[in-house]
Amino acid sequence: MLKVDNLTFEVNEEGRKRCLVNHVSFQVADGEMLVITGPNGGGKSTLAKVLAGIENADEGQIFLDEENISGYDIDHRANAGIGYAFQQPPRFKGMTVARMLSLAAGKELTEAESCRLLSAVGLCSADYLNRQMDGTLSGGEMKRLEIATVLAKPHKVSIFDEPEAGIDLWSFSMLIKRFEEIHKEKKESLILISHQERIIRMADKIMVIEDGEVKQYGSRDEVLPTLFTRESCGRCANGLEGGVC
Predict the structure, then answer these.
(1) In whole angstroms, what is the distance from residue 54 CA to residue 148 CA?
(2) How does it sit in the membrane (predicted)?
């Protein structure tokens, strides 16, 4: 179980403090799927980075299976069982896709194992295994490869920041299928940050964050009816499945 208690993260902007994550608390049970949604710039990605250890919280605590991991850096949190897929993945010149997948898995993967991972995100292994993870890859390709690195290793909690962004409908459908499989297996918990209705409807729990604060948090049946009565923004209206902001 992941338990987040009173998590707060602030930044200094021109000498003034701005709270990007404001006393956020929630829990994700074993095998549970939490979808976090809300307006752009509301603090969703910042919260994900704090959970992964990329940013350090100013206040609050994070517990994973009753172990306090609040002071852990990103490496120690990954070893403890936190997986994280960036919304905008970093590029690595000189690093092949095959090598990156093996590093992510923590072992040398066979070509067949790498192929299964790439197929799960809509990529053909023959076209990608020996390519470098650099500027020759598009943003959508990088996004799918980033997701594959998280899928390469079992985690207690996997965090995916807008997994649908920048990918085509077919690849999105494959990702949905994989998330459904992980959820059905109940072997790890999922936190998905998304605007997409199809992803939101998969959730056990939904949390709406706006201006760094939790505006709604509860079961899917409790929160879902209130979400799609709002006027969709242009981005969501033109998305793969429609969504909310």
Answers:
(1) 20
(2) Peripheral membrane protein
The structure tokens listed for 175 are: 């990702």
Q: Which long-range CB contacts under 8 A does 40-45 form with residues at least 24 apart?
A: 40/233, 40/235, 40/245, 42/209, 42/210, 42/211, 42/212, 43/209, 43/210, 43/211, 43/212, 43/213, 44/161, 44/193, 44/209, 45/87, 45/161, 45/162, 45/193
pLDDT of residue 123: 87
pLDDT of res. 232: 45
pLDDT at position 229, please? 60
Residues of the chain with pLDDT under 50: 230-245
Q: How far apart are CA 191 and CA 202, in angstroms?
A: 11
131: left (phi > 0), else alpha (psi -120 to 50), else beta? beta
CA distance 133 to 130: 9
| Neighbour-count burial of 184, counting CB atoms closer than 10 A to its CB (0-12 exposed, 13-18 middle, 19+ buried) | exposed
Domains of the chain: 2-237 (3.40.50.300)
Both tokens assigned to 206: 């939904």
Residue 67: how many other CB atoms lie within 10 Å: 11
Beta pairing class for 82-85 and 157-161: parallel
User: What are residue 172's phi and psi, to 5 degrees?
Assistant: -60, -40
Task: Return the pLDDT at 121.
Answer: 85
